[in-house]
Design a protein that fits this description.
About 35% of the residues lie in helices and about 15% in strands. The chain has about 575 residues and is an alpha/beta fold. The protein has 20 helices and 14 strands. The N terminus and C terminus are likely disordered. Helix 5 packs across helix 7 and helix 17 crosses helix 18.
Length: about 575
């Protein structure tokens, strides 16, 4: 081995190639053969050796060789192919480094892939339940005494997170549907435990660990169907805290992954539970007797309020390799002719998702859109959806390629406790209909009989006629886009949606005032966070991030114990007040 002037090690093979590159024709042949050898990621990385050898001969020789190859292969104009910058890059990076890997595109389809066509006669739909954001407060009490003089109701209060009794009643209601399976998109912990002192950290970890185990046990005891969970931003301590694997190992949250790996194994099996342990809380597993894979992703590594994302100047486009894991699993499913549901906690289009990973996720969606049959999230506590487009500058039904369905929360702090039931085609795994099941928590009879209302909303019945949806059609991305078009002109329909957001429990007026209606519709059309229209203030946002504040939770008496004060001063800058946090 020999050290090159820029510090890279060159093998004897590379030097041998270099010695035979005395003229442009030889260099052109080497470049051509290197490019022709590329058939997959491994061969692409292997091609770096001969290409780097030619680049070492100088910019002129490499540019001439590349231009010759482009012209001969009719790839592009020779002037466009001329590459002194490419030569510089090849001399500056290693074929085994992360930068080289980032040059590689997503693998092309190995087989012809098309979205599954609905059968001539559809089978009876299966039902799948979606639950999220349970936020169980195991210190909830409803006895008169200090510090309150009026007791909270036994099965929940709009000013408090979920008591255990409310969570149990929800799980019993879920089981009554006899679903084929259940998806849970995270957040077990109460939002009251927002932060703690260093001395409390180990105690809080122990408590969080105990609560995660307790809810796993409660789901197992009350729901007979398989459950496929994902991790939420509140399922750690401190809240939102998920250090990257490049951070000091002593600061990791492996204890969260260990706990959920063991707790989820009963539903996802040993292989997937090992993935939870070793791939930062993510896993992929095939659903028994179905042509469907559940891909559960820990979205907290893309969360703006995960402050561990800012502990280094080194750009890390794929923290802990989660995007690489997604591509690996999607490619395997595509090769096997399987369909995939992606589940995770934080929707990719919200303003608190970092823009870069939101864009990377969208690129993966564009590539595997015919394999991804559904995407499901929580976090916002609202009944919402986000549409992905192949061209965000031309948002029309024909360009709608995916939709993220967001589940409302169990916790009453954001409205009536609710969950969703999906009618699912067992062949295409497309959504045929959605039922939102909720509890009217302010109704005194609920506190005694715990009866969940059969249905607040059926998408096909409430919205289908507005867009001319045939009775046997799936709720495709185009359907959701057409619905947003209705919302722009039909205020009655939009106000119905606005009521459904909180399940009728905490309705916030939204109309043309302060541009609320347009902003909300824009948010529906934003599966990528850079495309949403929600404006937040830099200063108040930073204060809330530092204090562990959840952007979608309303501060109440029950959530006032922040356990510390913000010890930072931010400059007042009124010019920032109308700026978007993503800019």
């Amino acid at each position: 081995m020999r050290l090159s002037p820029n510090g890279l090690l060159w093998s004897s093979a590379a030097l041998s190639i270099l010695s035979h590159s005395a003229n442009a024709q030889n260099s052109s042949q080497i470049v051509l053969e290197a490019l022709e050898s590329i058939v997959d990621c491994a061969s692409c990385l292997a091609a770096f050796t001969p290409l780097q050898a030619v680049a070492q001969t100088g910019n002129d020789a490499f540019s001439d060789a590349l231009a010759f190859v482009c012209d001969a292969a009719q790839l592009d104009d020779p002037d466009v192919c001329s590459g002194p910058i490419i030569a510089h890059d090849l001399r500056s990076i290693s074929s085994t480094g992360q930068t080289a890997e980032r040059l590689l595109p997503l693998p092309p389809p190995s087989v012809s892939v098309a979205p599954p066509s609905p059968p001539a006669t559809r089978k009876t739909p299966i039902q799948v339940v979606h639950i999220s954001d349970v936020h169980i407060d195991r210190n909830y009490y409803n006895e008169i005494g200090q510090p309150v003089t009026e007791p909270a109701q036994p099965f929940g209060n709009l000013n408090c997170d979920s008591p255990v009794q409310l969570a149990d009643s929800m799980l019993e209601a879920v089981n009554s549907f006899n679903p084929a399976f259940v998806i849970f998109t995270g957040d077990v912990q109460t939002g009251a435990k927002l932060s703690c002192s260093v001395s409390d950290t180990m105690l809080m970890q122990c408590e969080v660990n105990t609560d995660l185990k307790a809810f796993n046990a409660e789901m197992l005891s009350k729901v007979t169907a398989p459950i496929f969970p994902s991790i939420g931003n509140h399922d750690s301590n401190p809240v939102n805290s998920f250090p990257r694997n490049t951070t000091d190992p002593a600061l990791n949250v492996q204890w969260v992954f260990d706990t959920q790996s063991a707790g989820w194994e009963q539903w996802i099996g040993s292989a997937a539970s090992q993935q939870v342990d070793h791939i930062s809380g993510s896993y992929a597993v095939a659903v028994t007797d179905m042509n469907l894979v559940i891909l559960s992703v820990n979205t907290q590594y893309w969360y703006r309020q995960n402050l561990w994302l800012y502990d280094s100047d080194t750009f890390q486009p794929d923290p802990n390799g989660l995007f690489a894991f997604m591509v690996e699993q999607l490619q395997a499913a595509e090769d096997a002719g399987q369909l995939v549901w992606i589940i995770g906690h934080i929707p990719l289009g919200k303003q608190d998702t970092v823009e870069d990973p939101s864009n990377y996720f969208d690129q993966i969606l564009q590539r595997y859109k015919d394999t991804i049959a559904g995407m499901f999230f929580g976090h916002s506590h609202k009944d919402q959806f986000e549409i992905a487009y192949s061209d965000y500058d031309n948002q029309i039904a024909a360009n709608a390629v995916g939709v993220g369905l967001i589940c409302p929360a169990l916790t009453p702090t954001s409205g009536n406790p609710a969950f969703k039931v999906y009618d699912v085609d067992p062949d295409t795994f497309g959504i045929m209909d959605i039922h939102v099941i909720f509890a009217n928590i302010t109704d005194p009879t609920f506190q005694t009989n715990r009866a969940y209302l059969v249905c607040l909303l059926r998408r096909s019945r409430n919205y289908g006629t507005l867009v001319g949806l045939p009775a046997d059609s799936e709720l495709t991305p185009a359907f959701w886009h057409n619905l947003t078009e209705v919302f722009t002109t039909n205020d009655t329909a939009f106000q119905m949606f606005n009521t459904f957001i909180s399940r009728g429990g905490d309705v916030t007026p939204c109309d043309a005032t302060d541009n609320c209606q347009n902003t909300t519709i824009c948010d529906m059309r934003a599966f990528r966070s850079p495309n949403n229209c929600v404006c937040i203030f830099y200063q108040s946002s930073m204060l809330r991030i530092l204090n562990g504040f959840h952007p979608f939770r309303t501060p109440t008496r029950a959530h006032s114990n922040l356990g510390g004060e913000v010890r930072v001063l931010l400059p007042e800058d009124r010019n920032l007040q109308n700026a978007r946090a993503s800019e």
